[in-house]
Amino acid sequence: MTVGTADAGVGQLTLPQELVLMLLNEESGYFRQVPGWNLNCAIVGAALAELSLIGRIDTDMESLQLLDSTPTDHAALDPILEAIVAEPIQRTAQYWVELLAQQAETTIDVALERLAEMNVLQHHEGDFWTLTHSAWQSERVGDAAGGTAVEFVRSRIARVIFDDEIPDPRDAILISLLSTCDVLRFIFQLEPESEERIELVCKMDLIGRAIAEAVAQNLTSPLVRRSGLTRQIPAIKLLKMVRNPHVRDGNLPALFADLYQEYGPVFEMRPPMQDPMVILAGPEVNRWAQREGRLHLTSTKYLDGLEKVYGAHGIIPALDSSDHFRMRKAMQPSYSRARLEEQLDAVYARVRGHMAEWNVGDTMPARSMSRLLTNAQISPIVVSIDSQDIVEDLIEYKERALNTRVANVLPKFLLHTPAMKRAAKSIDIMLERIQQSHTAAQRVDAQRDIIDDFLSLHANDPQLLPESSLKFSLSAPLLASMYLGDGLGFAIYAMATQPELYERIRAEAEAIFADGDPDSDVFKGPEIDVTRRFVMESLRMYPVVPGSMRDVMNSCVVEDYELPLGARVLILQTASHYLSDVFPEPYKFDIDRYLPGRDEHRSTAYAPFGLGTHTCLGQRWVELQMAIDLLMLAYYFDIEVRPTNAKMRISPFPSLSIGKKLKFHIAGQRHEIPRVEAPNGAGMPMGCPVAH
């Protein structure tokens, strides 16, 4: 079976690729309800069946025989063929399914990569997948041209099931595997007659019967083996944790990296006056969270308190499954790097307008300085209002809400003090300004901003984004000033304390601003190579959101430890940032980690923006805005840290930020800042925990 697209040329869909396509659920952006082990077994069965169809092996109900050891040139098939060739004893299909299922993730990855190369699937941040809807054509006799690749495969199966068409072996095997996975009823509406037809088809092909039986027998094995495999989760000693030096400096990723090295990837923490919490840390669980977390963990429960504070229901970080995917798809353009690139002139003007207020000799609190610089750009560009006078109150209230209702590090009554009640009023002020700036008359000829996107989503899908959630959703873009501002603050500190890197960033700034403001292409090329790698290293050493809280909705086994139903889980995905076997000399600020040949970030061990379905939606925006700000700061100013040579202390809750005592000092000015009226603009916020 050969098919092709206008974009991708001609290629052949293998059975593993066809199985992946049929399992994709476009509503949720991931695979249908097939638990990980079941999916692994089915994928291996599909690969073995493909090897049989192309004449490399033969199988019956008793054994699997090697016919031809010639490589297939398929990256998903050849490792399986090599294993069969290397085995001196003739084995059964069930044996190979059981043996190779543990390695099936590689087969799945290869199938997905090939489908993306063929322009059949598109990958999205958060490990979501969607169809590209490219038109496909089949060279099989009698197949009509047109339709997507999924429609092509689905129509073949439908003709066999509903039109009693005699299936060829490929279709019979695929129907057998899908039936074994119990997903056909989610793809088609099946009547009793259709189910009888499926049962008959599954018996037609001997290869399909052998592999389907092997797969079916293996589906129950994890349930049988679970109790024998699991170990007791170790509990950390609170005193030992308190004595760790990173408790004092606030570096949570480094703290949990130390605990990982002592206790392993899964351990339990029992905070005073709180329920026990399971900690997941290290590269192994990062990969598990990326691939399997969505099947077992939920983000809904732990954010109940935050939703109540804002009177919201179904905010983005609290959504799971298809609703979460629908929200991400709807808001993806709003959080894209392209949206920021459209507004570079406004960004340059806003940065200069804010920095023009600085004078040589000024000394400012580091946290406040970086947050206000960020908000000076975000507020007018993203929500079309000025909020510099209220943004610190907005942030203070959000931090207190997180600390009292989510992190639970402060008693709940502290959210209702007179100071917090005054800070809460800033939300109403902000909403009133947004309302005034988003009337029909005000939006004529105005560039679309994030508020327009949220209001449009509410109008078109009020169940997905109800009116009750607008208060939180509309304030979220300004609260981004806290997260992006804190990330920028860490980067400024790193730049100010490393003169050599400061000069290299300044050299890039001098070059790109020499003939005026650069266009967006400059930020994609080698012109800012040092700055780009500097931002990546700053995000590694100082990730603003070091972990994520979840609750177990389906019990599961992680690295031989069973996570029980209802357990609270803290995934410290950035603990890997401080492991020497992943990042050599992890406490050294080394931008060469990201050069070709080293590429230390090319794995789930590098996770400053989270993992899995809740990966930060606007991470590309963040990286670009941080690069622009650093370049402009280096171009115009000499910045020093006060107190001189002070060791930075990190404030760890509710997210990581520079400690309040550290200050930035304007020691000199390199260029005069032109006094230019900032253009009106609209845009969207960078990705952050409130926009996951």
Give the structure's gist in a few sentences.
By secondary structure, the protein is an alpha+beta fold. The protein has 27 helices and 21 strands.
Give a quick account of the main beta sheet: strands, pairing sense, barrel closure.
5 strands, mixed
Low-confidence stretches: 1-10, 222-229, 681-692
The quaternary organization reads as single chain
Q: Tell me the fraction of residues in β-strands, as a range.
A: 5-15%
Shape: globular
Widest sheet: strand ordering: 10-11-17-14-12
Terminal CA distance: 41 Å
User: Whole-number radius of gyration?
Assistant: 28 Å
Give the count of helical stretches.
Answer: 27
**How many strand elements?**
21
What is the CATH architecture assignment of the largest domain?
Orthogonal Bundle
CATH H level of the largest domain: which superfamily? Cytochrome P450
> CATH class of the largest domain, please?
Mainly Alpha
CATH topology description of the largest domain: Cytochrome p450
Helix content: 40-55%
Question: Which class of secondary structure composition applies to the elements?
Answer: alpha+beta
Number of domains: 3
